[in-house]
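Exam prep: given the inputs below (a chain plus glutamine), describe the expected output before reading on.
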Amino acid sequence: MPYLVERMRPFTSTIFAEMSALANRTGAINLGQGFPDTDGPQSLLEDAVTAIRSGANQYPPGIGVAELRHAIARHQRRFYDLDPDPDTEVLVTAGATEAIAASILALCEPGDEVVTFEPYYDSYAACIALAGATRRTVPLRKPDFGFDPAELRAAFTDRTRIVLLNSPHNPTGKVFARRELELIAELARAHDVIVVTDEVYEHQTFDGVPHVPMATLPGMADRTITISSAGKTFSVTGWKIGWLDAPAELTAAVRAVKQFLTYVNGGPFQPAIANALDLPDGFYQQLASGLQRKRDLLTRGLRAGGLEVFQPRGTYFIVTDVAPLGYDDGVELCWRLPELVGVAAVPVAVFCDDPEPARTLVRFAFCKQDEVLAEAAERLAKLTAR
Ligand code: GLN
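Solution:
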């Protein structure tokens, strides 16, 4: 790609697009890219249609329609006792992706550093590079994907500007525990840095494990940008309605960048998502319990097939180790998996600066219909030892 700026050259394609294309080409069951194969709540779909029919088809306000900003603020109060001002402390974005990009671009000067954990969601590395900043990653290690506090401490320097956190964590399914968040918060305060926290899987935790938003820790609301998205919670990944809440000065900084990225998006989807956020608790409980069941369904299949499974406590991903089957390269295996057994997955090593510890790790998405998961499990059971 001779025309592409140098800093973006390592990011010419995404593994999600590649593996979805491979699945489509081969007709494999796609447990690679994380998207549900069923629609979100019927009322949500109807509300979007109604909004389109009633003329909500021009630019919404740059910060998002008032109904949605108020609904986001209500949601933060209802679930976390946070109290963002819907007019100055909430910003609607084109998915969580734009909220992440705009936050990094707004806060980092070239040469600044961003501390994040690896494996990391792929857009983090690309956005940090786009800003001319540098990432400093702290490894999460199997089987529990914990981190070494000393390594986290050592990642902070006088150039650290942001800690970019993701909990529940893609791809590992780790839900950061309060004591882990407390250490991150302590270091953020000591080094006077902002925490940007990607909580798109906030309602997808299992086994009674609570999601603890960083902003709920003492003193942290003042230095935290909290990001979420309708895509995961309401199974509408194609709508690209995301948001953030943060103190007014931080929100204003991110808004300044956001308005020149997309300006706005998804006019008729915004009021529909506003209504969905107010759905009763039962909706949110069923979302989590339904996914937990699917997790268990796929886990059984993967174990029966001889893969080592690292049980996720959140998200809709399972990380496995394919080494017990004799495979020594997850990237290579993912390219061959559709032809071998008719299933697509995603290698974890591509989300790491140091691919070695993740060399044999492979991620499967379980946000699929039960029959699809059962069929995938049956096929994976045929992945005989090499
Ligand atoms: N977040 C989804 C995943 O992790 C994919 C999103 C994308 O394709 N950019 O699978």
